[in-house]
Amino acid sequence: MVGEQIRRLALGLFAALMTARAYWPSEIDPSQVSGSGLVWVLAMLIVAGLWIVSSPFGGRFRFRWSWTDAAVVALVFLAGLSSTRGLDRRLAINLAWEWAGLGFAYVLARNLPRTRGESTVLAGALVATAVAVSAYGLFQARVEIPQLQERFRRNPGQVMLEAKVPADPQRVSVFADRLLGSNEVFSTFGLANSLAGFLAGPLVLAVAMMIRNLADAKAPGSRWGVIGLAAAPLLCILTCLILTKSRSAWIGLFVAVAVLAWQERRKVPAGLLLGAGLAGLALVVALVAVGLATGRLDREVLTQSSLSMRYRWEYWRGAWGVITEGAQGQAAGASTFWSGIGPGNFGSHYLLHKLPQSSEEIQDPHDLFLEVWATAGFWGLLALVAALALAFWNLLGPAAAGPGEDDKARDRPRRRPSAVSRETSPEVSRETSPIAAAALPAGAPDRLGWLTLSAGLGLVMVLLVGQMNLFQGDLLVRWVILAASWLLAALLGLGFWRRVPLPATAFGAAVLACVVNLTAAGGIGMPAVALVLWLLIALGLNLRDDRPCGRLREYAGRLPALGLAIIWSALAGSFVGAITPFWRSEAALAGADDALAHRPPDFERAQAAYEFAEEADRYSPRPWLGDAYLQLLIWESRGSKPGDLRWKKIPALLLKAASPPRNPDAWTLHSERALVTRDLLKKLGHTLSPREIISLRASIVEATRTASRLYPTNATLHARLAEASAEISMFRDAVTEAQEALRLDAITPHQDKKLANAQREQLKANLPDWTEKAAQLKLELK
Prior knowledge:
mainly alpha
């Protein structure tokens, strides 16, 4: 009994963590080294420890395992292993542990639920979470986005300051166009495509249950009653998905519903299935028409599909360049092809292969398979393909054996049952679980109300693992909407989920919707998006009790638990060793920010905090950047005097931020180093000796050249390098860089990638003079 209580505690915590992860962004952010989900990973690690501890108390180890599970675990392992190849080590380490957290979640979803009812409740909680974030997305579309647009119209300067938009006319114009001309909802996610990737799978599950309830007139309760109650939550998800304007998610939904219809064709009357399909199509058409009429949708969503596909093709060409990087006989390229570049490191490598006309500096290839290949290499891709192929086979395939054969297999005598693994019989499941494994989920809410409540507590859990302050900004309003809509969805869905059994094939269709979306939108490295995919696979396999993958097995002994405890200890130790330095450094940075927020700023405390952060985490560039700007603040507070040599520390600290073991391939760090040095030169130029001026100008050229080589299709970097080169009489280089800047400016169709108008005209004016001087120098050298 003690073991069962511990297992239930672990399952309840898992349910809360599962729902909590959707409530704060998980997109890759190199500037913040993407550490916002690491507390969630630690919590999953603790839950895994509870699951392992629960086994010895009962004397039996119960588990599910299949070749699909082996492929998923292999993929997670290879993604983590590839972090050793990441040039941005801190980002790679943090995201490798995010991958590990997803692996923990998958294994726990496979093994913590003992019955069909428990897996069903977890699936229903996932759908309720999708309803909650959809409800907030609709509120965002109706209230928050219009309010932000109105704030921008009244005070654009303040909004741009908050968004950290440069005060360049072109950049301002692009920002204004995006804010005022784009109204995609993103809810608790950072991007609309991420939200769509989260919603597609749960929506397919809800549609599958709608079809099953509609088709089964003999099941207990009124089918029209439960369908009517569940219609509003389903409509909420569908409406929000449409408003994300994610075409890849729409296609995934359409394909998944087609597969559902095919799977249900023998269980549902053809007329009923056709009528339901036509009704669903009419609903979608009506929603789209309303969206177009109200301005929430625009015709460009459909008319510019070919343009969006062109962008994807450009991304994929660049991604292939990353995968084959340095090939043609070079060992580095071969290693990249086979071993990958590490989690989170795609963005800096991609810029080396980005086409001049491409639109964005993307952080992932916008393709599921290319992303895994670039991250974990060919073997990672192979593990992914195997995992998905095996998952589809198990979720959508026919029963492995008939009921009679299963019964015979269960009734066969087994030799030495205390020493071999065996399948758990229905009788064992009934004794150790609140609901029999083979029973329908009727009555599940009565016996599993505690699990539903636990899943709902994800909104409380996020305050701990997401480290959010409810009283900051508009978070309180957001939390009220999320909590109310989750609770309402759970209440309205009680009869919906208990009246008929949830079919495993529904999970196969839901996984297909996710895969189709991820193939064009990407996001397998974003925990909140990827979590849905892996949970759908895991819970769906649990419901295939007609196949070996869904059967709960037993091992009469404590040896497996001991082996898992050893593995868990190694993982826990690795996590502490890898992440504790980062947390200590981030805590020190928070202390430095607090010291600088005081009036007057406490420079001494901030200085001590930055020095501690630098020592605590040698992989993160953030302490060095913060220290550099602290030195600038101190120098300026003392009057920016040339005799105060503190200013010399600023370029040195910025150089350390962009040097190994931190990321030497971050073009933004080198660009910032050049800009700050140029600003110092403007302030001090009249007081410095010619030698010091030449040294600073040479440093500007070196930093700008490094940035431009790391981002060779950036016209602005080439223009700045041309100007810096001319200042130290490197006129031939100035001509070459100016011509390249103008060429790139002419090629790109994107306004935010073009040169500023003043900079373009200045280059054109200077180019003849630089060309003449370069020719003169060439003659003098002869």
